[in-house]
Amino acid sequence: MHEMSICERIVQVLEEQARTHCYQRVKKVWLEIGPLAGVELEALRFSFEVVARGTLTEGAGLEIIQPPGEAWCLTCDKLVAIRERFDSCPECGGYRLRVTSGDQLRIKELQVE
After folding, report:
1. Alpha carbon 76 to its chain's center
2. What is the CATH number of the domain that holds 93?
3. 3-state DSSP call for residue 21?
4. Fewer CB atoms inside 10 Å of the end CB: C or N, the chain?
């Protein structure tokens, strides 16, 4: 389950930032995870709770922001909404799509003390 390693890295980044910015505890974390990022959200929530134990993120709330998936269709020259990486263009039916949004996974915001 790669969600566990994702959470381990998130906690590691938060601990590094705590040393840099002098905070003691993370109360809430907002993650931006697009539908094309290949992350199982429930597995990520479970993993975050497990990985956070004994760290400055223990007990922190986890909010997930999901931006829409979008791609530029190289066939019809339009920006289109997609739900999965290999969807066809909803405008022309073509498969020559370049993902422009929805594959991100990043720490968006923190509430700390």
Report:
1. 29
2. 3.30.2320.80
3. helix
4. C
> What is the tally of structural domains in the chain?
1
Q: What is the pLDDT of residues 20-53, one digit of tens each?
A: 999 999 999 999 999 999 999 999 999 999 999 9
pLDDT grade for 1, boundaries at 50, 70 and 90:
low
Report whether pLDDT(62) > 80: yes
User: Is 31 in contact with 10 (CB distance < 8 Å)?
Assistant: yes
- Domain of residue 52: give its range: 2-112
Give the DSSP H/E element, type plus range, for residue 36: none
- Enumerate residues 6+ apart whose C-beta is below 8 A from 46: 3
Q: Are 80 and 70 in contact (CB under 8 A)?
A: yes
Give this prediction's pTM: 0.85
Q: Tokens for 82?
A: 């997609």
CB atoms closer than 10 angstroms to residue 65: 13
Measured CA angle at 37 (ends 31, 41), to 5 deg:
55
67 is written with which tokens?
A: 């931006």
